[in-house]
Amino acid sequence: MAKTKIEKIASIEEEIKQLENKKKRLIQEQKEQERKDRTSRLCKRMGFIEKLLPGTIPLTEEQFKTFVEQTIATEHSRRILDGLTARNAATAPTQGAETAARGNTQPAAKATQTAQEDSADGSAAQG
Q1: How many helices and strands in the chain, by DSSP H and E?
Q2: Does 124 have pLDDT greater than 80?
Q3: What distance in Å separates the CA atoms of residue 17 and residue 92, rounded to the nearest whole number?
Q4: How many Å apart are CA 17 and CA 21, to the nearest integer?
Q5: Helices 75-95 and 105-121: angle between axes, nearest 10 degrees
Q6: What is the pLDDT of residue 103?
Q7: pTM over 0.85
């Protein structure tokens, strides 16, 4: 039995609602996975810092922030980081679509641009 146009429209509208809900679920799952990945990354990296520098464990948040600003967040450290991220950007095409699919290509591209700017003014040659 043939559907009337009104029934077809209602069917299509129901399908649209289902697809919109599916899209919302997928976006929510993606955000949840990104949060899990970030939490895992933060725990691993902070654990590594505490392993290398156990003296940082009893520091207050403010003291730790000061320590990081005065030791890690230096121009020398930034040049090293820029060099590492530039190297990652150069090897990214061979790593496949996995990294790009997770959206991790932008920081490397930004670092490459920063490294190129440093090279232009000669400051990267010092690192």
Answers
A1: 5, 0
A2: no
A3: 38
A4: 6
A5: 130
A6: 52
A7: no
Distance CA 83, CA 114 (A): 9
Q: Please write the tens of the pLDDT for every residue from 111-120.
A: 444 444 444 4
d(Cα 25, Cα 27) in Å, to the nearest integer? 5
d(CA 114, CA 86): 9
Mean of pLDDT values over 65-88: 92
Tokens 């069917």, located at residue? 11
CA distance 117 to 127: 14
Exposed/middle/buried for residue 118 (C-beta within 10 Å: 0-12, 13-18, 19+): buried
DSSP for 46-91? HHHHHHH-GGGTT--HHHHHHHHHHHTSSHHHHHHHHHHHHHHHHH
Model confidence at 90, in pLDDT bands (50, 70, 90)? confident
Reduce the DSSP state of residue 104 to 3 states and report it: coil
Banded pLDDT at 98 (limits 50, 70, 90): low
